[in-house]
From TrEMBL:
Signal peptide residues on this chain, from the entry's feature table: none
Keywords noted in UniProt: ATP-binding, Ligase, Nucleotide-binding, Protein biosynthesis, Transferase
Name this protein carries in UniProt: Aspartyl/glutamyl-tRNA(Asn/Gln) amidotransferase subunit C
UniProt-listed Enzyme Commission number(s): 6.3.5.-
One MF annotation (Gene Ontology) recorded for this entry: asparaginyl-tRNA synthase (glutamine-hydrolyzing) activity
Entry similarity comment: Belongs to the GatC family.
BP GO annotations: glutaminyl-tRNAGln biosynthesis via transamidation; regulation of translational fidelity; translation
Pfam families: GatC
Function: Allows the formation of correctly charged Asn-tRNA(Asn) or Gln-tRNA(Gln) through the transamidation of misacylated Asp-tRNA(Asn) or Glu-tRNA(Gln) in organisms which lack either or both of asparaginyl-tRNA or glutaminyl-tRNA synthetases. The reaction takes place in the presence of glutamine and ATP through an activated phospho-Asp-tRNA(Asn) or phospho-Glu-tRNA(Gln).
Subunit: Heterotrimer of A, B and C subunits.
Catalytic activity: L-aspartyl-tRNA(Asn) + L-glutamine + ATP + H2O = L-asparaginyl-tRNA(Asn) + L-glutamate + ADP + phosphate + 2 H(+); L-glutamyl-tRNA(Gln) + L-glutamine + ATP + H2O = L-glutaminyl-tRNA(Gln) + L-glutamate + ADP + phosphate + H(+)
Domain of life: Bacteria
Amino acid sequence: MSIDIETAARVAKLARIRVDEDDLPQLAHAFNDILGFIEQLNEVDVEGVEPMVSVTPMRLKRRADGVTDGNMADRILSNAPDAREGFFAVPKVVE
């Protein structure tokens, strides 16, 4: 596929990029270079190659998923204007 100057102008307009008329041939050439590189990548045989997340094989560090209260309940409740029996006390809003 080849990109001509009119197509390069249309792409620039769709991308909302202002390109001078003098720069359109260079932009079309750059688009053609990119498409040529993509065509080269399409020629590579990747059959049987597993996808990878990183170039270095490493496992994510994992910690035990344990539910805790953070051992800071007393410090947190000390900031509350009204706390009772280990909970925040709030005014009743529903009758």
